[in-house]
Amino acid sequence: MTAESGYSILVVTGASGAGKTTLVQALADRRLPGVHCYFFDSIGVPSVERMIAEFGSPEAWQTAMTGDWVRRLAANPDRARLAVLDGQVRPSAVRAAFLEHRVARGEILLLDCSHEVRDARLRQQRQQPELASRNMTAWAAYLRGQADALGLPILDTTHLNIAEASDRLVQHIQGVE
């Protein structure tokens, strides 16, 4: 890693509706010294057709963009102690990017919740019923399976309100820094 040795990167992943963006935004709002938050989708998400035309598949686009994010964060442009990236990304792609960009202190945290809670959040709170689909349920199960297989920490937001989940995220990052 090109940044100072005490620098860490935490990638917060999970399916839509698990609470990633909400919690990382709540973390950013706390303005903790040395903690900088980033949002994967801030780079823009092209259409599936464009992902296929330019990268061969949506998965290949996601992997390439994950690598770009990790490369940028590994350079530590903001001189942070901890960079927290919110992104709906495969843990295996993050780990590969950590290796490629020599990130010595990188961690992945999965945010997860029950299908029923995710479905309600997507349909009611976010007003995005199209995301409350079998594909999203399968994606959530895939991410949980990767987290289990890789021994990643999991923050289950099923029974937590935003303040409680935000507090748990802060407790987690205090162990990462």
Explain this structure.
The chain is α/β, with parallel strands linked by helices. The chain has a single domain (8-176), classed as Rossmann fold, CATH 3.40.50. Helices cover 50% and strands 15% of the residues. It has seven helices and five strands; from the N terminus they run βαβααβαβααβα. The protein has helices at residues 20-30, 48-55, 58-74, 91-100, 115-125, 134-150, 162-176, and strands at residues 8-13, 35-39, 82-86, 106-112, 154-156. It has a five-stranded parallel beta sheet with strand order 2-3-1-4-5, with helices on both faces. Helix 2 packs across helix 3 and helix 3 (58-74) crosses helix 4 (91-100). The two termini are 16 Å apart. The model has no long low-confidence stretch (mean pLDDT 92).
Short description:
The mean pLDDT is 92. By secondary structure, this protein is an alpha/beta fold.
Which helices and strands appear, and what pairs or packs with what?
Blueprint: E1 8-13, H1 20-30, E2 35-39, H2 48-55, H3 58-74, E3 82-86, H4 91-100, E4 106-112, H5 115-125, H6 134-150, E5 154-156, H7 162-176
Parallel strand pairs: 1-3, 1-4, 2-3, 4-5
Helix pairs in contact: 1-7, 2-3, 3-4
Q: Biggest β-sheet: count, sense, barrel?
A: 5 strands, parallel
SSE series: EHEHHEHEHHEH
Q: How many separate structural domains?
A: 1
Using the coordinates shown, work out and report the CATH topology: Rossmann fold
Keywords:
five-stranded parallel sheet, 15% strand, globular, 177 residues, alpha/beta
